[in-house]
Write a structure and sequence with these properties.
The chain is of the alpha/beta class. It has helices at residues 2-15, 28-32, 54-61, 79-94, 116-124, 140-146, 175-186; strands at 35-39, 48-52, 68-74, 100-106, 130-132, 157-162, 165-170.
Length: 187
């Protein structure tokens, strides 16, 4: 009963944000976890997204090496999520060629993956950086296992990891906050 209530609360919180309006790069984890391709119709062959299970996403988030992983959880219907995306795109461009990997974990309904999410990915040239996550598969264990601060109650949420160092940010990131958090972990 607790799981049902908790799942309902999480889903309600994720949907409380007002509606406004992938391909994962090869990594060691991508080779060792199961991913599902979601390719739109043949005419849209340039858009491919990847779906990860919560368990495999947990493995991805736990990577410990010299690469800085910046992982942003978002949905296309979330206004604050959409407003912070340009900051991430600017930082991605600035750090191109450096050991930094930006990944965007999409929490839209599965029914939106080949419409709203696809449109967002194509318009922002982010398809290779987007991972689809079926929010209905998430339970409280996913959050307590992977994060110190985030309980899944709201988005956007950004998780940064380099080696054993981690940082978390709940809410919309300004460009200044993103810059300071990334620079702190790159030192």
């Amino acid at each position: 009963m607790k799981k049902i209530i908790l799942s309902t609360l999480i889903l309600t919180a994720l949907y409380s944000c007002k509606k406004e309006g992938q391909k994962m790069e090869d990594t060691a984890v991508a080779d060792s976890v199961s991913i599902t391709d979601h390719t739109a119709s043949a005419g849209d062959a340039s858009y491919t997204s990847k779906e990860l299970s919560p368990e495999n996403l947990g493995k991805y988030l736990a990577q410990k090496n010299d690469t800085l992983y910046v992982t942003n959880f978002f949905a296309t219907w979330c206004g604050p999520c959409m407003r912070e995306i340009p900051h991430f795109k600017n930082k991605m461009e600035e750090l191109k060629g450096k050991p930094v990997k930006f990944t965007f974990i999409n929490l839209d309904d599965k029914s939106e993956w080949n419409s709203s999410v696809k449109r967002f990915a194509m318009e922002n040239n982010l398809a290779p950086h987007i991972i689809l996550l079926d929010g209905q598969k998430l339970d409280q264990t996913f959050f307590t296992t992977n994060f110190k601060q985030w309980d899944g109650g709201s988005i956007p949420f950004t998780y940064l990891r380099k080696g054993d160092k981690t940082d978390e940010y709940l809410g919309m990131m300004t460009e200044e906050v993103l810059n300071s958090k990334v620079e702190a972990l790159l030192k």
